[in-house]
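Bug report (template v2)

What were you trying to do?
Predict the complex of my protein with adenosine-5'-diphosphate.

What happened?
Run completed; filing so the output is reviewed.

Input:
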Amino acid sequence: MLKIIEDFSERRRLEKSMVTTNEALKRQTTELQRSNQDLEDFAYVASHDLQEPLRKVRSFCELLAQMYKGKMDARADRFIERIVDASDRMQALINDLLTYSRISRRPLVLETVDMNQVLLEVADSLRNQIAKSGAKLRWETLPKLQAEAFCMSQLMQNLVENGLKFHASGRHPEVRIWAGRKGDSWEIHVQDNGIGIESAYFERIFVIFQRLHTRQEYRGTGVGLAICKKIVERHGGRIWLDSKRGEGATFHFSIPAREAA
Ligand code: ADP
């Protein structure tokens, strides 16, 4: 009898400590969500407010160039060019940071998104780059997804743009896109014939600001793939890649195949 009572009180003690642990975990999760939200709000406000002074710097530099180019020494001309170039890079960074923080600022509202239409728009926005590099962009019939249209455009734009950008010298870039149904999800694949990536970097490249190249080699902000990851995970999917250095890369992402509401 005494044994039964001991067992019972031990169980009660354990249950009580589990409830306390659960509550502590819930509190920690709420606290973490709140501090993440605070950080995103901060990134949004900071990037938004940085735009105005930056526009001023750029426009005064343009004025300087218009009024004094060739009237000062060559070094002064070069300095002005470098300020304009730096402010363009900062503008690109701010735009990417704004996109990054905008993604999770609103609740997820799904609609039917025709991925063929998304690709047409992406191809149109990259037409100059495609023509200049003699690139080929091809895609097979893609599905309609239940997703956010803005997010799907951003996702495809970043993946296709990277496929065109990271191409090996002396080779015309080729990007091919196709899709397939896998269980409860659609999988979309974006393959290029570019410089490829060593497997040691497969995780790192999705972290914000992580780049494997200097901006002299390839321009960029290091935010594109972090945006892609955030978008895919927001939709309940995942993103990954296959690649070997020098042999191109294939990025894959999945999006749950939901019924239209
Ligand atoms: P960005 O393109 O602005 O550098 P991303 O976040 O899009 O930033 O990509 C991070 C890094 O991953 C790139 O700097 C590049 O080193 C590598 N990367 C991304 N896509 C490719 C690709 N298709 N082929 C080779 N390397 C890539």
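What did the reviewer find?
The mean pLDDT is 90. The helical segments are 2-68, 74-103, 115-125, 127-133, 149-165, 224-234.
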